[in-house]
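Narrative summary of target 7.
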Amino acid sequence: MTFPTLARRAFCALAFAAPVLAFAFPNGPVEWVVPYAAGGGSDVVARVIASEMTKTLGQPIIINNKPGAGTNIGAAYAAKAKADGQVVLTADTATLSTNQFLYTKPGYNAEQDFAPVGLIARFPMILVVNPQVPAKNLQEFLAWARGQSSPAAYASPGAGSPHHLATELFADGAKLNLLHAPYKGAAPAVQDVIGGQVPFMFVDTAAGGSHIRAGKLRAIGVASLKRVQGFDSIPTLNEQGMAGFEAYAWQGMVAPAKTPPAVIDTLNKDLNRAIGTEAVKARFQALGLEAIPGSPADMAAYAKTEREKWGKLIKAKAISLD
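Modeled conformation, tokenized:
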């Protein structure tokens, strides 16, 4: 065999191998951008899943908290990252379904700048009141709210938050005139409902679950079609007369657009495996979260449905954060 023949064969072998080498993943630590401050529900979820995913990816996953502007800061950062899977983002209700309606210039395009990896979990919402409010079920709550001399006030972690939008959706369905009291985060909002400064709010299970169990907040109803595991004694608003009412805060993982499909597939498989581990299941149960593993296509479809639902409400209510 002549040298030119060997050279040609070697070149062909390298040519066929090149795409495989180009898609080698991961080739170093993976950066997981969480667009919220450390210690919150989204941060906790990312860290427990990252711990499990690291075991199969073979590289550490480093959490990078980039809070601010309703997830826009972290999302814009991740959208501009190299599309090789080495940077992923926790993308939630705000990032993919509401911010494009709440902000004129969020800094990224929710439908074009990201490749879905997979859904992670939903945070069920619960309508809660201060124990001094004379209501123990939906009908009693509606009678109380309608009987106030001025619009009943409700707390939320902030304007445009899933909790705020859930309450506006609830107000529309129940024909209530309410007054919004936005806070800078779930913790201060919950504390003021406990303290009686504001009579009620929609709270997610991660932020309010322990207070419900301790009797500091009284649960009126869950904003889902089925009762929530761990809070089985709380009836849904749906079964109390608000047919079809549901509202969640949810989150999943995305990568920058044009990330190779092989990389997305690897991330998706490891993400779903991590969600199914006992460690993650136990943590989710403690937080009252509903795991929602699935494919990238499942996530894309879910985000689209949520975008249509909340976009319609935001436009009708003329809610803006600019």
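The two ends are 71 Å apart (CA to CA).
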